[in-house]
UniProtKB/TrEMBL annotation:
Residues 2-59 form the HTH lysR-type domain. Belongs to the LysR transcriptional regulatory family. One of its GO terms (molecular function) is DNA binding. One of its GO terms (cellular component) is protein-DNA complex. It holds the Pfam family HTH_1. This is HTH lysR-type domain-containing protein. The keyword Heme does not apply. Keywords: DNA-binding, Transcription, Transcription regulation.
Length: 290
């Protein structure tokens, strides 16, 4: 069966009408080029070139193969390049799982990092509840996951990215609304808006911070779940601990936190080597990159 190596050698000779120049063009020995063309002629059962001591000429069969061979090589090169670009994550689609605690600002950062220098690359986000992170990675439903916590699973690898600072969101008429800054201890006795119940990793992380500061709160679970949307702060008369850069909400005020706390950000993937897209994300969103 003829192969691309033989076809590429023939096209080079047919275009140069000289075996020496064709060999130089292909960075091969002249003997190797001659052998490839001869093999191609044998396998096709047709003489493609007329050779004399002075020149090389195309036969009718050779002229026909040159025309279609150029197209075949161009199509093959294009196909190979497309696959390489997908493999290098400069085209195709990168599927990213995001836990509900990962907001719009982090997603935008991921898109900016991945598409920098790769305008043909598409990014698709998929909401992933914490319990579904490992199953979705194992099944290949997503390429990697951005989350605030990581499951304990031997077949899932993870690394820390740049953590996210936290700010306080309170109703416009709240006692802390006009404060230049607030401390976690100031939230003692408050109603805390959460997007998942106690016993889930993200909510338990917030409760751990508050307990360490000596603050006890009443949890109020949001009616709109799946992502940290702040729109119910005013409606429910609750406060919320949000990642800096989260969307604002009508009737609510952002207050800086004086405490040195930040939300961890992790990227998780199936155990093994990192893909080109994952390597680019880690380089662009690591603590060192910030």
């Amino acid at each position: 069966m003829p192969d691309l190596r033989q076809l590429r050698a023939f096209v080079a000779v047919a275009e140069e009408l000289n075996f020496t120049r064709a060999a130089e063009r292909l960075h091969l020995a002249q003997q190797a080029v001659s052998k490839s063309v001869a093999q191609l002629e044998r396998e096709l059962g047709a003489e493609l070139l007329q050779r004399t001591t002075r020149d090389v000429r195309l036969t009718q069969a050779g002229a026909a193969l040159l025309e279609s061979g150029r197209e075949a090589l161009a199509a093959a090169d294009s196909a190979f390049e497309s696959v390489q670009r997908i493999g290098q994550a400069v085209t195709g689609t990168v599927r990213i799982g995001v836990s509900p605690a990962v907001g719009v600002a982090i997603r935008k950062q991921a898109v900016d990092v991945l598409r920098a220098g790769a305008p043909e690359l598409s990014v698709s986000f998929h909401e992933v509840r914490p319990a579904a992170v490992a199953p979705m990675l194992r099944s290949g439903s997503v390429d990697f996951v951005l989350a605030r916590t990581a499951p304990s699973a031997p077949d899932i690898d993870s690394t820390a990215l740049r953590p996210t600072p936290v700010e306080l969101l309170v109703p416009a008429g709240h006692r802390l609304a006009g404060a230049s800054a607030a401390r976690l201890a100031d939230l003692d006795g408050e109603r805390l808006l959460t997007w998942s119940p106690a016993g889930t990793p993200f909510t338990d992380l917030l409760l751990t911070w508050l307990a360490a500061a000596g603050a006890q709160v009443e949890l109020v679970e949001a009616h709109v779940t799946g992502a940290p949307y702040p729109y119910e702060v005013s409606e429910l008369g609750a406060v919320a601990l949000m990642a800096v850069g989260s969307p604002a909400a009508d009737g609510a005020v952002k207050v800086p936190l004086a405490d040195d706390v930040s939300l961890p950000l992790l990227v998780l993937w199936p155990a093994g080597p990192s893909s080109p897209a994952l390597r680019r994300l880690r380089a662009g969103m690591s603590s060192a990159a910030g």
